[in-house]
Amino acid sequence: MFCNLRRAPRSFIKVLEVSHRTIMTTELQTKFDKIFGRIDALKPVFIERLGQAIEIPAVSGDETMRPHVVKKAHFLVEQLAKIGFSDIQLKHLGVQPPPVQNPDLQLPPVVLSRFGNDPAKKTVLVYGHYDVQPAALEDGWSSEPFKMVVDEKQQLMRGRGTTDDTGPLTGWLNIVQAHKEAGIELPVNLITCFEGMEESGSLGLDGLIAREAQGYFKGVDAVCISDNYWLGTKKPVLTYGLRGVNYYETTIEGPAADLHSGIFGGVVAEPLVDLVQVLSSLVDSKGKILIDGVNEMVAPVTDKERKLYENIDFSLDDLNASTGSKTALYEKKEDILMHRWRYPSLSIHGLEGAFSSAGAKTVIPAKVHGKFSIRTVPDMDSAKLTKLVKEHCDRVFAKLSSPNTCSTELVHDGDYWISDPHNASFTAAAKATKVVYGVEPDFTREGGSIPITLTFQDELKCNVLLLPMGRGDDGAHSINEKLDISNFIGGMKVMSAYLHYYAESAEN
Ligand SMILES: C[C@H](N)C(=O)N[C@@H](Cc1c[nH]cn1)C(=O)O
Ligand SMILES: [Zn+2]
Ligand SMILES: [Zn+2]
């Protein structure tokens, strides 16, 4: 273990003053030099490992792809073993609950492993997810999404999962390898918890965490999650809040089979016509949620909170750059960020069962499903929200006096989360960021969701830190998802430095 600043003799400590705070001893500087040097030297190995992982199309939301998700879990097991992690276990979570086409479909396994088990050290659990969002070349990708391309000119890696979340996940493996090869002891015990269902609601993981709180996860002092993004493209951030997400499916069905619109058009009630009306009643084009009672659940903005937005480095131009358009609903930084972080939003994602290919098929679909989700924020209650959503859809459908049937179901929900950005974990991560990037990070919230964050905090009774690796323009969930090589390398250096600073902090 390296020395604790408070106990070390003054003569020994040659300090580096950064921003009025003492953050580095020469001993730590030497360690960082060696670790960072190894991370730089191992760059080709790390890129190769990420490329191999990206090739496995682990799409959790598509039942037919489940064997690939399982294959990626086994790939991780292989890599963990190669690097020297121990006690590697695949935890099986049973069958996937409905709605599901195959009632026997097994959930993907959770990959647990350890590096070190020294009672004198703190224990950090790192969580990541190895599943990804769907992707297809015909969606508009400039290269095969599951064949990682290293763009030397732009110094980035393109492929599904590079930033969300395979790149950051492999980062944890890589930093252990870098420590070993640099001959530097890892300053904490590390536990990995990698799941394969995050993009589909983290089904089954809550139960596993509760079961293992006093088992595999006993003694965890802090949880660190690298699964979100910087706000923009230049300034590193640490994230202390997430929105939750409630995902819904409205199903409307009528005729026993798809019909010819020339023969039956105007003669039968069309499910898709009904569904379009139900969906269009949920939200207006300015983003206002139209479901009675939803906006009333949102906690009011306080003056103290309003001030937090003032110093954040972000602008309308950043938003436009990351969407590649000028389609913003708000112009002012505060309005944009508040609507991303602290107000709910309702998005309509798609239709299942309806014609969606090129061409001009003249069919009346017999059964259609509309998919939409609501990002939730303090003080919204998931069960109450679901009641309001179902009542709203039933009411709108009833007004149509249609002979079809309509039902709305919650597919999955995950809680929002807010933390204290001044705890020991955040302080350690802020020092690490300053050492690697030379700037203090911004403290941000995230509009996306990581459903398991609150469960870790509550079940393991410890702080959770969100330590993003990629940039705001990485295109997570979109086409041409990428991770800049500088963020991959810088992110791994920050992960390493974070563990060292956290190890020497007086509190948890
Ligand atoms: C922020 C994280 N990388 C992420 O993408 N989370 C997903 C989680 C989710 C929940 N339901 C479906 N996906 C997200 O925010 O959409
Ligand atoms: Zn993710
Ligand atoms: Zn995602």
Mean pLDDT: 94
Rg, alpha carbons: 24 Å
CATH topology label of the largest domain: Aminopeptidase
Q: Strand-residue fraction?
A: 15-25%
> Bound compounds, please?
the ligand C[C@H](N)C(=O)N[C@@H](Cc1c[nH]cn1)C(=O)O, zinc ion
How many extended strands? Answer: 20
Number of discrete helical segments: 14
Strand order of the largest sheet: 3-4-8-5-9-19
N/C terminus separation: 17 Å
Question: CATH homologous superfamily of the largest domain - what is it?
Answer: Zn peptidases
Task: Characterize the main sheet.
Answer: 6 strands, mixed
Helix content: 25-40%
- Secondary-structure-derived class: alpha+beta
CATH C-level label of the largest domain: Alpha Beta
Q: Architecture of the largest domain in CATH?
A: 3-Layer(aba) Sandwich
Per the principal axes of the C-alpha atoms, what is the gross shape?
A: globular
The tally of domains stands at: 2
Regions with pLDDT < 50 over 5+ consecutive residues?
1-20
Using brief descriptors, characterize the structure shown.
Aminopeptidase; 14 helices; globular; disordered N terminus; 2 domains; 508 residues; six-stranded mixed sheet; single chain; 33% helix; binds ligand L7UNP4BN; Alpha-Beta Plaits; binds zinc ion; four-stranded antiparallel sheet; alpha+beta
